[in-house]
Amino acid sequence: MVVRQRPSKRRGSQPLSPIDDKVSIIGESVADTLSAGVVTDEPEKALTGRTPDGKAFAVPKTRDMLQSLFNPFTPKTTFDIVTLVTLSTHMAVAFVFPLAVKRWILMAAFAFWRLCYNGGLGWILNWQSNHHGLVALFKRNGWLDQNRGGKVYLWLKSELEAKMGPDYSFENVPIEFNVWLLYRQLVDLILLNDFAAYFFLCSCYLGSANDSEPWHTYLRISGGMILLAFNLWVKVDAHRVVKDYAWYWGDFFFLVEQSLTFDGVFEMAPHPMYSIGYAGYYGGSMITGSYTIFYASLAAHMLQFLFLSFVENPHIEKTYERPPLAVQVIQKSRNRRLSSMHSEPDEGASVNTPTSTDLPSIALPAAAPSENPLSIRERPTSLWHPDLIVFKNFDLFRASDILIVLLLLYSIGIPLGFMWITGNKQLVLAYSIIQCVGWILFRTLVLGILLRKQSTSQLITRWYIKHGGNGEEAFSSWRAVYNTVTIMTYGSFGLVGAAAYHWGDALFSNLVLFHTLGLLLIAFHIWSSRSVYEVLGDFGWFYGDFFARDPSMLSLAPADFKLYYTGIYRYLNDPEKVIGQAAFYGLALISRSWAVFALALLLQICNFMFNAYVETPHMRKIYGAQVRRDSGIVRTVKNAVNKGIGQPVFVDNQNDGIAGVAERLLREHNHHDSLSMVDLLTSTTKPVKDMLLETKDLLSTTTVRLAERALPSDLSKVDHLNLYGIKLLPSAAWRAATTKDRNSGSKAMKYNYYLGESIRVLWQAPVNHSRRDWIGIYPVTANFSNQITTVGSKGCFVYTHPDENLLAEMVVGDSVFAGHVKGVAAVKDGDSAGNFASTPNLANGNGFERTASGSASKGGLRKRNVVAATVSALQGEVVFSSSALPFKVGTYEMRLHHGGTHAVLAQSNPFEISVCDTSDVVRILGGQNEGTAASYTEPPVAASYDSIEYLSQALLQIVNKTFAVTDSRVVSVSKDSSPAAVAANGGRVDTDSDVDVVVQTEVVEPLESVEDAFSVDGVLNEKQARRLGYAIKSYLGVEFASDVLIHAAKHGATVHDVAKRVVEARKALSAYSSATF
């Protein structure tokens, strides 16, 4: 299926920015190259780097690690000495200890260094990617600051300068580059020791194999040497392409402006350094002939894939492919603000804007055209009810899905039950083989003939038109038939494998090996199928281009009919033809059956014929010269042969001229394709769950008691405990209510917040309070103690007054830094915080304070005597929004904590997070940002609240509250003697500095009108879909599965489109909502 591919999400011609591509390939230089008709190699020149805050710098050249480490004439740093000593330790273990002892020691060493690599380095990179954590750590401690670093600064400077060349200046490069250089030293230490431990471990298992024939030994060792040589070539060629910058994960720290040609090994496999780049592990296993080495190598390789899936792929996606939702929403908001400023200039106004240290402009993917050739409202139900793809999107109440289950039960389940009851495996095996052959022939021969007729004469479409249908119905019916046949083919193979499964007289070690290899092939098949589907989508998976050549003819058709060799198709022209039968060969290994192997071979031969006589002719007819001849692997092998021989043995005529240049330039974009992991879910029975909950409660109670004993030490040095306090500001419902409603309403209404609504909180603290004080939101029943918090906040927290050290970890869209100071107030030392801002109901107030020892009346609080002395207290505000809000209806409380600990300084009164009636959504939620109700004319009758116009506006507000993000900016302001400026400096006037750093926070909503796509950027992940589905169900009473919202978002549904589905659902359900039976 080479040509039914969707275009890549990656864009060319984008400026480099903190979320842009690491390779700025296409641009004016590409246009010049295409016009010239030839690609020339540019001479190597100095690279320009760019830090996350947009500062550009010249990237100094780095030295080769092996040469600087092992060259005796190169001066050695402390890091080099430590690395060499640890390497020598492994060598000493291998030569000194007895065989049995050193095997255990080296196995433990290999496990340790491998966990340091995938676990330790992975955690550090993930921390750096999400919070700039490693750089923030150095900023916080001042280790790279000349004024604060002291001896550590001098030592690190000498270490780095010894490792770099003359173009490096420690003081002139940004801190991100220096931290990256230090991180490189840690990487070298771990990776070299990981390799050394594995090498010496393999040396301890040489000669472990019991080969029955000498030629077995020669073949095994020769194969292992070939794999080792191949592994070496992969690493060397990969380093040739990505250089030290990407080799050491430089894009986690800063980005560079450079053009890379991802050829060679990058055209052979995705993530070659992690996939085929570990072939040497299996080469070592073959040379030693040890199952121990093989399984150790396999475990290490699996850890590397976990590292790729949970560390590298998320960073690659948000940096180069799809920026985070917060980044897109904030940038669109800033672009709208700039557009309005340019369109409506006010020449007479003078605006004083603080100097911003915010991130630079962010380049987002180009927006899709607003005019859709076929609105989703006019498309069939399949746009809202996704088709069954194998068993994905299975619906228990869909007739076709139930029929497939029944068909499987009759054809697969009953024979298995018969074999289990009677023990007659031969009869079932014969039946299953005949059935499997039938499904294979039906899938390739019968469906192949139908597709060929559809390609030449539109047979299936004409048949449906003749009998009163249309092309949409023809394609829908074809999808159901094709998926059914695919499921039955897989099911019949499984039946053959179950009937043919036997252990025989094989050795246990061989059986384990067969099962391991078989399961690996099955996993590889699942990954390749998912990769194919990610590229093709629904339309390509079901051969949609046999049914339509115009995007407006079918609902699932892509916007354009062009070929984009992305994803797995970058390496293989037709993955299904080459590796699409891996699971069946794996089943043959597990069952140790030649019958299963023969059926897998038959299926692969039939697929080759299907591709040759059905797919390829149709593809060449539709796409013509866009269909390439050689895959990425074939092209790489040809280039390697030509380079090795020194003359062009293989001539690539396809890539001559302008078309070849364009293809090469396109290939340069398509790299770092993500591997997707299958989420593994486990469940427990109710008794086990109850036991675990009881154990958890017991542990929580014990934790509280132990923590309360340590509490006095945490708060013993805190002055003026009575000045700490927090107070909730009124909710949107209270602000939107009239004076009459406020007087008649209950006090609880004032602090009853709606789902997704931002919550603003006033806080008060002494001027010398900790800048790491924070406020968290918890369910009222979550904590057992009022003195210490024992449960995690799950991200629902905000710092009250963050300083520069904390702000170093801030990234775009962070909602935890939304606190700031508003001023300084003179407060009587004896007064409680409950009296600030004339609000007598503030928690930790009412004339009570916590005792230092924790023992007092009224639950740890005691009445204190009022002292007439006056002290200064900071007063400020925090905003809970987006990810800092709990997105679930319930009763909550807020807790003010001391200095990054869980010691409680103040608590709020309980408050509710609930939902309003559908008729109040627009009136209340629509006016939150301005602090007043939106101007909205209520419908004349109650029935109008079910109209498409009203529900569209209501849904717009719900989506905006669900996907709202926090735009916190670090800005520099001038210091003076005003209360606000003094407060920003911790209550003191700094005579040595003229500026200070503060945070400005704004809650940004993504959508402007009901015609905007409800998914912001056309993509919803599972978490976002569940969040939106919960909000729609809570506010509008209609429940959408997350898969439905994801599917609709993928096909460009707007807010109005979703509102129409809500209207239809409410009408369908309203007839029985009040009925009694």
Automatic annotation (TrEMBL):
One of its GO terms (molecular function) is phosphatidylethanolamine N-methyltransferase activity. Keywords: Endoplasmic reticulum, Lipid biosynthesis, Lipid metabolism, Membrane, Methyltransferase, Phospholipid biosynthesis, Phospholipid metabolism, S-adenosyl-L-methionine, Transferase, Transmembrane, Transmembrane helix. It is found in: Endomembrane system; Endoplasmic reticulum membrane. GO terms for biological process: methylation; phosphatidylcholine biosynthetic process. GO terms for cellular component: endoplasmic reticulum membrane. It holds the Pfam family PEMT. Residues 1-12 have a biased composition (Basic residues). It catalyses: a 1,2-diacyl-sn-glycero-3-phosphoethanolamine + S-adenosyl-L-methionine = a 1,2-diacyl-sn-glycero-3-phospho-N-methylethanolamine + S-adenosyl-L-homocysteine + H(+). It is a multi-pass membrane protein. It is an enzyme of class 2 (transferase). The chain crosses the membrane at residues 78-98, 104-125, 189-209, 215-234, 246-266, 286-308, 402-422, 428-451, 480-501, 507-527, 594-614. The keyword Transmembrane applies. Pathway: Phospholipid metabolism; phosphatidylcholine biosynthesis. Residues 1-20, 337-356 are annotated as: Disordered. Its EC number is 2.1.1.17. Belongs to the class VI-like SAM-binding methyltransferase superfamily. CHO2 family. Catalyzes the first step of the methylation pathway of phosphatidylcholine biosynthesis, the SAM-dependent methylation of phosphatidylethanolamine (PE) to phosphatidylmonomethylethanolamine (PMME). This is Phosphatidylethanolamine N-methyltransferase. The lineage of its organism: Eukaryota, Fungi, Fungi incertae sedis, Zoopagomycota, Kickxellomycotina. The gene is CHO2.
